[in-house]
Write a structure and sequence with these properties.
This protein has 180 residues and is of the alpha+beta class. It is built from 6 helices and 11 strands. The strands form 4 sheets. A 3-stranded antiparallel sheet has the order 1-3-2. It has a 3-stranded antiparallel sheet with strand order 4-7-11. It has a 3-stranded antiparallel sheet with strand order 6-9-8, with no helix packed on it. Removes the 2'-phosphate from RNA via an intermediate in which the phosphate is ADP-ribosylated by NAD followed by a presumed transesterification to release the RNA and generate ADP-ribose 1''-2''-cyclic phosphate (APPR>P). May function as an ADP-ribosylase.
């Protein structure tokens, strides 16, 4: 499978495992899982056949580890806009986490903090480099530091997804360090 096909399959999986499973007639269980066979059959029936080998390669080689397979089930690791409960246990975050954004969002973040928007949680990165890559998807990145240790001490609950993304319901502005 060439790189372009790898990206196409990954985007297809993202669309249907995170945002619109019903579009191809797939139903996620409460934790976001779907049987691999069901997904492959639905994809083929809707004009986008994926082989089991292609699926496993995308799961194994995706640089962001967006998907996980457990036995004969697959799910997206995080980032859902459809109702799911990933059943991730609370976890103690490192003292600081990072969020990549762009300059046009900074004023709203200063006023309201980081909000989940159309997703279930705010996504935070364990390092500046990852946050920079995330922010760069929409322009020149602005990296925000989040005092996760202080947030946890104040009672905010953190969870970490299978691909290392830290999740929290909201980050109030007082816990964010802005550049400059």
């Amino acid at each position: 499978m060439d790189e372009r096909r790898l990206v196409k399959v990954s985007k297809y999986l993202s669309r249907h495992l995170r945002h619109s499973p019903g579009r191809i007639g797939v139903e996620l269980d409460a934790q976001g899982w779907v049987p691999v066979g069901t997904l492959l059959e639905a994809a083929a029936a809707h004009g986008f056949p994926i082989t089991r080998d292609e699926l496993e390669r995308v799961v194994a080689e995706n640089d962001k580890r967006r998907y996980e397979i457990a036995g004969e089930r697959i799910r997206a690791s995080q980032g859902h806009s459809v109702p799911v409960d990933l059943a991730l246990p609370p976890a103690a975050p490192p003292p600081y986490l990072y969020h990549g954004t762009v300059a046009r969002n900074v004023a709203a973040i200063r006023a309201e903090g980081l909000r989940a928007m159309s997703r279930h949680d705010v996504h935070l990165s364990p390092d500046r480099e990852t946050a920079a890559r995330v922010g760069a998807r929409r322009g020149t990145p602005v990296i925000l530091s989040v005092d996760a240790g202080a947030m946890r001490a104040a009672g905010h609950e953190f969870r970490v997804s299978a691909n290392g993304v830290w999740l929290v319901a909201h980050v109030p502005p007082g816990f964010i360090r802005f550049p400059g």
